Every structure is written in structure tokens, then in C-alpha cells.
Amino acid sequence: MISDRMSAAEFRAVQKADQSEAPSKYRNKKTAVDGITFDSKREAQFYSSLKQLERAGQVYEVELQKPYALTVNGQLVCTYKADFAFYDAIQKRNRVVDVKGVATKDFVIKKKLMRAVFGIDVEVVR
Q1: What residues contact residue 124 under an 8 Å CB cut-off, 6+ apart?
Q2: CATH assignment of 27-125?
Q3: Are 98 and 82 contacting, i.e. CB atoms less than 8 angstroms apart?
Q4: Could you give the dihedral angle defined by the CA atoms of residues 10, 14, 15 and 18, in that order, rounded to the nearest 10 degrees?
Q5: Is the pLDDT score of 126 beyond 70?
Q6: What's the pTM value of the predicted model, to 2 decimals?
Q7: What is the predicted pLDDT for the residue at 2?
Q8: Are 79 and 111 in contact (CB under 8 A)?
Q9: What is the number of other CB atoms lying within 10 angstroms of the CB of residue 38?
Q10: Which of 1, 57, 72, 96 keeps 20 to 30 A from 23, CA to CA?
Q11: Element of type H or E holding 60
Q12: What are the structural domain ranges in the chain?
């Protein structure tokens, strides 16, 4: 006799498999480069080009996912994690870059807070 029923564990396994196949909200595909998993192909490509510039001596002190505590009047409002922060030897300045396909409302606010709190203009690469 064949049963049309499945156990709870079998159901959870099917649910998990279905969820892992679903595309992400913004259709980005996680991509790994140098053992680092990036949220999108575009972010991985930017990292690869940044590493080439670093090898050429054009950028230094490359940091990934650098956190910035956005504090106003002694109160922590939120934390912004920059995709990339580095020193540009050609432009002779520190740069903060975020790779975005879609600028969310949260990002727009955090970008404005970065300017207000630290005087840093976050560059958006699309």
C-alpha cells in the first residue's frame, strides 16, 4: 500500500529545497572570488578590478564590508557596512564604494548619514 502522506521532516526538506531555488529579491547571484562570497556578480567584478589596481600600486588598504557606526548626538542610529573602503593613490584620497543595482530607502538614508556624520560621500557603482 502506497501512502500519499509525508513526514514532517520530509516536508521541511522539500520546503527548504524549494526556497533555495527561489531567485533573490533583486535577482543578484552570489559569486565567489578568492574564497570570498560576494552578494552579486557585479560586486565580485568590482573586487577583481580593485585587486588588479592594488597589484599595480594604484590603491592601498582595501577593506571589505567596513562598518561605520552612525551616531548622532551620542546616540547610535544605525551601522553602515561599506562594500569597499580603500585609499586611492592616483586621486590621493580615501574612497568608500557601494555596488548597487537598486538603491533602497535604507541605503539612501545611510548614505546621507555618512555625509552628515563623517563627511564621506559614498560612491555608488551600478
Answers
A1: 97, 98, 99, 100, 103, 111
A2: 3.40.1350.10
A3: yes
A4: 170
A5: yes
A6: 0.74
A7: 59
A8: no
A9: 21
A10: 96
A11: strand 59-72
A12: 27-125
